[in-house]
């Protein structure tokens, strides 16, 4: 088979005499990107315990809706940044977008430390959302680029596990720091260190991966069942948005499930610490509960991502959404540390079943030529769930109480799982999947 002509490298990319697809073949860069995404998660984790309590205790916010404005700001800005990240990374390359995301992250902990009013906290979260959208989206796309189709679920499991394990660890550590030294500035000094290290690694050590996606595109093989025949390489950004959001059954099912998943995460982020604090629980113990959910979520993805490569995507997603619904019901019904710990662990397990699997399903369906844009659209909907969740749960909590708001979100999560069960098809390929891998492996750029 003739070797394909290498495409022009992205600006700032390092060229390599040989490109190959696969986790083992790209182990060094993949591992580096896992570390970078852990730092991205740490930037988010610095807020999970402290900021909801900061609004209540230092800025006197009593209405739940007002207290959740920082999550609305974060969710909206991250959603838009996800979409922009996908488009820009297809046009200019992945690495410049990643570095830009870290540059935006640097002021965030400083604004949180110096904030004289809640408006500063909201502004910090707008920047945090932009940074998270650019950095996390790009690390997702870069890992998909490197591994090809064969171990996509495992790759997403490793990526999300690193990010959310860091969220959990940072949430716990900041809770302890806040208990010992106060809500500011100590907890946010961690974020400052994470931003500096993430910027340095991304600028110096990370390599461009867009050529790997082009290599995979050259060996792309259609599904044996005829699905996706109407989805060809030349799609405009508007067509990618329409297919991912509404038209293509698997892509649109994943988008709505992602939105609802982060809707309930926005609820957990904004209202769980307030619910726990209402019982007189210490900040340190609240930090443990705030960390337990993303810890199980993060570490569980090491298993669930790989399982989705063996068992398939659809029913793992359905089961995960239903498990999350049950866990939210247990939070609403509980009133002790032990009961909430069990519920938090169960919520993390359900989320672990869903999170990497949804991303893998997007990678299964989207053509490599427009996959980054499709990931960006999916993450636009998914992280828009933060804003929807904060607004919905805040309004319901103000009108009917925190527990009623949690019950309502539990019902919505269960309904989302049923939508996936009815509308989504299995995206993991059969025999043509292995054929595609052989073709891509043969098309090595020398």
Automatic annotation (TrEMBL):
Q: Quote the subcellular location field of this record.
A: Cell membrane
The way this protein sits in the membrane is described as: Multi-pass membrane protein
Q: Where is the Major facilitator superfamily (MFS) profile domain?
A: 26-428
Q: What is its main location?
A: membrane
Q: Name one Pfam family in it.
A: MFS_1
Show the GO cellular component annotation of the record.
Answer: plasma membrane
The record's InterPro entries line, in alphabetical order, gives: MFS, MFS_dom, MFS_trans_sf, MFS_Transporters, Sugar_transporter_CS
**Regions that span the bilayer:** 27-44, 64-85, 97-114, 120-141, 161-182, 188-206, 266-284, 315-333, 339-359, 406-425
Superkingdom classification of source? Bacteria
Keywords for the protein's UniProt record, in alphabetical order: Cell membrane, Membrane, Transmembrane, Transmembrane helix, Transport
GO MF terms, alphabetically ordered: transmembrane transporter activity
Protein's UniProt name: Predicted arabinose efflux permease, MFS family
């Amino acid at each position: 088979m003739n070797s394909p002509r290498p495409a022009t490298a992205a600006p700032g990319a390092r060229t390599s005499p040989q490109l190959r697809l696969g986790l083992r073949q790209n182990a060094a860069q993949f591992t580096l990107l896992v570390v970078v995404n852990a730092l991205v998660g740490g930037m988010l984790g610095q807020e999970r315990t402290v900021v909801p309590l900061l609004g209540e205790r230092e800025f006197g916010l009593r209405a739940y809706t007002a207290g959740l404005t920082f999550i609305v700001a974060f969710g909206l800005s991250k959603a838009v940044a996800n979409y922009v990240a996908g488009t820009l990374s297809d046009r200019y390359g992945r690495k410049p977008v990643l570095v830009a995301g870290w540059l935006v992250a640097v002021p965030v902990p400083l604004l949180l430390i110096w904030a004289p009013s809640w408006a500063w906290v909201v502004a910090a979260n707008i920047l945090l959302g932009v940074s998270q959208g650019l950095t996390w989206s790009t690390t997702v796309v870069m890992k998909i680029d490197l591994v090809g189709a064969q171990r996509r679920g495992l790759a997403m499991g490793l990526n999300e596990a690193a990010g959310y394990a860091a969220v959990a660890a940072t949430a716990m550590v900041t809770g302890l720091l806040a208990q010992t030294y106060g809500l500011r500035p100590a907890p946010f000094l961690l974020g400052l260190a994470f931003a500096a290290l993430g910027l340095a690694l991304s600028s110096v050590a990370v390599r461009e991966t867009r050529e790997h996606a082009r290599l995979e595109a050259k060996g792309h093989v259609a599904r044996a069942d005829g699905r996706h025949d109407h989805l060809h390489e030349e799609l405009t950004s508007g067509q990618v948005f329409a297919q991912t959001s509404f038209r293509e059954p698997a892509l649109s099912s994943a988008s709505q499930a992602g939105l609802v998943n982060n809707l309930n995460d926005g609820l957990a982020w904004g209202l769980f610490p307030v619910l726990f604090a209402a019982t007189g629980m210490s900040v340190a113990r609240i930090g443990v509960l705030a960390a337990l959910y993303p810890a199980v979520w993060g570490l569980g993805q090491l298993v669930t991502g790989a399982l989705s490569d063996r068992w398939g995507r659809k029913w793992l997603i359905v089961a995960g959404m239903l498990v999350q619904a049950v866990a939210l019901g247990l939070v609403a019904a509980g009133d002790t540390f032990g009961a909430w710990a069990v519920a938090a662990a169960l919520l993390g397990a359900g989320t672990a079943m869903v999170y990497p699997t949804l991303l893998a399903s997007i990678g299964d369906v989207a053509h490599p030529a427009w996959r980054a844009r499709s990931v960006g659209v999916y993450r636009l909907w998914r992280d828009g769930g933060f804003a929807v969740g904060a607004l919905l749960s805040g309004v319901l909590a103000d009108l009917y109480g925190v527990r009623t708001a949690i019950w309502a979100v539990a019902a919505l999560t269960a309904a989302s799982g049923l939508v996936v069960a009815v509308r989504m098809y299995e995206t993991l390929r059969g025999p043509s999947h292995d054929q595609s891998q052989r073709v891509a492996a043969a098309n090595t750029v020398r």
